[in-house]
Specification:
By secondary structure, the chain is mostly helical. Helix content is 81%, strand content 0%.
């Protein structure tokens, strides 16, 4: 039993670190818009759902994914606050992350508690969160679209710091799932598990305006993760863990591909 648990934790760590390092290397080479949209890939959330499904069963994981959808309201609160505070102060370095981190995490905690008091069916929470994505994107439109002119190559120490933060969150949430139940598992999984460490790394390395430029593109990118949640909520109990998860990732990729194609066509038409 102990050996099985140890093997599962090791698997979580290896998979999480590998994916986070790969995403960091990709994000380093693309612009703010693409980096923001990359958050729409259900990486941290997807791994929590997979490991929860392995340990607690597909039905439990599906219910957690159901609660993730209204839980993304907390993510929107987090990025809206962090982006606003970071852009206003426009500082870089280790001290620069303190104020926006405190404000964003406090906002997240209040929003998470509020969401935990509700029981919203997917037929309502799905269109509601879709509207909130658009509204938040409009609210963040005023943030500067500052490009990174002088790129700083992230060392392996920075990448491993981010990977370990993500891995710790994934291991803790999936391990605590049976104790906290599917609702809180879903709400906590909606926390920007892979995004927050990336925010910290970029903010420490550059300035507030650069991180705000990434965050302003996150809301519409989150549609990919929400598509994943919608698909696995139906797919896991019906198709099982493997095919249900595959359906979820297919839905996320379909959304992001469609969004990228529509955005590109719109920019070409406006040019």
């Amino acid at each position: 039993m102990i050996e099985t648990v140890g093997a599962l934790v090791a698997a979580k760590a290896v998979v999480s670190i590998g994916i986070v390092v790969a995403l960091s290397l990709i994000a380093e080479r693309v612009g703010p818009r693409a980096a923001g949209l990359l958050t729409g890939l259900p990486l941290g959330a997807g791994m929590v759902i997979i490991f929860t499904g392995i340990e607690q069963g597909p039905v439990f994981a599906a219910e957690a994914a159901h609660h993730m959808v209204p839980g993304f309201f907390t993510t929107l609160v987090f990025i809206l606050i962090y982006g606003a505070v970071a852009a206003r102060r426009n500082e870089g370095g280790l001290k620069a992350i303190i104020a926006p981190s405190i404000a964003a995490n406090a906002g997240y905690a209040v929003a998470a508690y509020a969401v935990s008091l509700t029981q919203i069916p997917l037929t309502i929470s799905l269109p509601a969160i879709a509207v909130l994505l658009i509204v938040t994107s409009k609210l963040m439109a005023y943030l500067p679209n500052t490009p990174i002119v002088t790129r700083v190559r992230f060392g392996w120490g920075v990448l491993m710091f981010r990977a370990l933060m993500v891995t710790a969150a994934i291991v803790i949430i999936s391990a605590a799932a049976s104790a906290i139940g599917p609702q809180w598992t879903g709400i906590l999984t909606a926390f920007p598990i892979t995004l927050y460490p990336l925010i910290l790394v970029i903010h420490i390395t550059y300035r507030g305006e650069e991180i705000a430029a990434v965050l302003k593109h996150v809301p519409l990118g989150l549609g990919g993760v929400i598509s994943f949640c919608w698909a696995v909520t139906w797919g896991l109990p019906t198709l099982g863990l493997f095919w249900g998860t595959l359906l979820g990732y297919g839905a996320a990729v379909a959304y992001l591909s469609s969004f990228a194609w529509i955005s590109r066509a719109w920019r070409q038409r406006s040019a």
